[in-house]
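Long-time lurker. I teach an intro course on protein structure, and each term I like to show students one example going from raw sequence to a predicted 3D structure in token notation. This year I'd like something fresh instead of my usual example. Would anyone be willing to generate the tokens for the chain below so I can use it in lecture? Attribution to the forum is fine with me.
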Amino acid sequence: MQFRSKLVFALLAGACSFAAAAGPAANAERADFLREADLLKQDFSKAAPTPEEVGDADSFGRNVIWDGLLQSGTVTLTGDCTPLPGDPPPGPDDRCVTLNAAPAITPFDLPDIGRMTLPPKASKSLLCHWLTPINFYQFNNTTAATQFNASIRLTPYIIVESEVLLDPALIDPGTGLPFGGRLESGFAASYADVRTLEAGERASLRYSHSRTCIAGFLSKRNLIEGYGLTEAQANQIFKKKIVLRFGLRGSASLVTDAFLIYGLRVMGD
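-- Reply from a regular --
Happy to contribute to a lecture. Here you go:
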């Protein structure tokens, strides 16, 4: 601020010297210059915006930083997960869920099917996402009656690991227990397809659509207001290394086959 004040003073002094040398003919130009310098001085003294004004004041005016790309393993839902002869071996992050016989519901929770490690100071106050599924599933009512709850429900989530969360005095408000070095966040990107199937009816669907960041899956503001951290602790989260582990939970009923893959692009500020 001191440098900026000196700059404005220097500009004003230059304008006065120019006017004295040039005489009355320069008065109009000098007046315009003084008005511009006054506006410059006002811009320099303008206060930073508040959360009430811009919603997320912590990231206001900052550039986007590309922090990396994560891809999940392939999640297969099927009636029999036994590999067929000649099939390639599954990848380290691939998962197979054996479905219960129709019309029973099969719940599942698959943590850590993709991960990313962000170095210290990869972002200042925010982690945002582009989350894109490439999913296919097929319904088949193999029972002899109409079924009213053929369904597939999918909820992707992310586990955030940080050494700051190892402090036993920090309590997760969602569990009432110490964080233990990690917290769970989500993407507001749950998906559900629930329908009625007549006996013998089949249906299949393939979908891919991106969910883009709004509040982000990790932010300084939410760490303070949602998880109870102090401002200093929230700042330390972003100053330290962060490990991200992708997970998928959901359920299926009257699904015969499904193949699910997620891509996650992470951005910071």
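Some talking points for your students: Confidence is low (pLDDT under 50) at residues 1-21. The CA atoms of residues 159 and 202 lie 36 Å apart.
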